[in-house]
Amino acid sequence: GMFSYRRESGPRLRPGIARFLAHASAWGCLATVSAHEKIPGLPFGNCLPISDGPLNNSTGTPFFYVTPKDPAVADLMKNPMASLLLPESEGEFCRKNIVDPEDPRCARLTLTGQMIAVSPEEVEFAKQAMFSRHPVMRKWPRQYEWFFMKMKVEHIWLQKWYGGVADISKEEYFKAAPRKA
Q1: CA-wise closest residue to 140 among 45, 69, 58, 52
Q2: Superfamily of domain 12-175
Q3: What is the domain partition of the chain in residue ranges?
């Protein structure tokens, strides 16, 4: 029946699954605290392209290519804290098993932390990470003043089945190798 294909799970697998979702995701929904004059202090969400590194190099740290003209970036300039939702709906499990992307069996990862501009020493890596996953970005109009940001991950939550979320430590998350959900 509908619930008969329980996937392999358990606490020791969660950090690897979280890293898989971070690495396999081409986009995510970023939530900020609005600085917009009409909705100050309220949540604001925006879906953005991301990359945690080139296909052969997962870092677990999400990188972004953004413009100051984006309302979310304006929010981050006032309050750099954000949450990033990375749904498994892009993966094959949900489609193959005809599971709605909002069904708890479709895993989702939420990372929270501080968004910071990428340092000059890290710009080349950020370029490689973003442009290898999103080649069209190289041609985006220059007048939008694009720059690279990354999330300094502080908290990691994984929902992988019914019954709530698992809190994963930063240490476990960053030392884990990506493992399919």
Answers
A1: 69
A2: Electron Transport, Fmn-binding Protein; Chain A (2.30.110.10)
A3: 12-175
What are the mean pLDDT values of the chain's consecutive 10-residue runs (181 residues total)? 47 84 94 94 95 95 97 96 86 56 72 98 98 96 96 94 81 92 60
Residue with tokens 């986009």: 27
Cα distance between residue 61 and residue 122, in whole Å: 12
pLDDT attached to residue 89: 59
Are residues 52 and 22 in contact, defined by beta-carbon separation less than 8 angstroms?
yes
Between CA 75 and CA 170 the distance in angstroms is 25
pLDDT at residue 48, rounded to an integer = 96
State the DSSP code for 41.
Answer: T
- φ, ψ of residue 176 to 5 degrees: the values are -75, 150
pTM here?
0.87
Taking the C-alpha atoms of residue 181 and residue 104, their distance in angstroms, rounded to an integer, is 12
Here the tokens at position 165 are 């979320």
Structure tokens at 179: 């493992």
In the prediction, which pLDDT does 165 show?
79
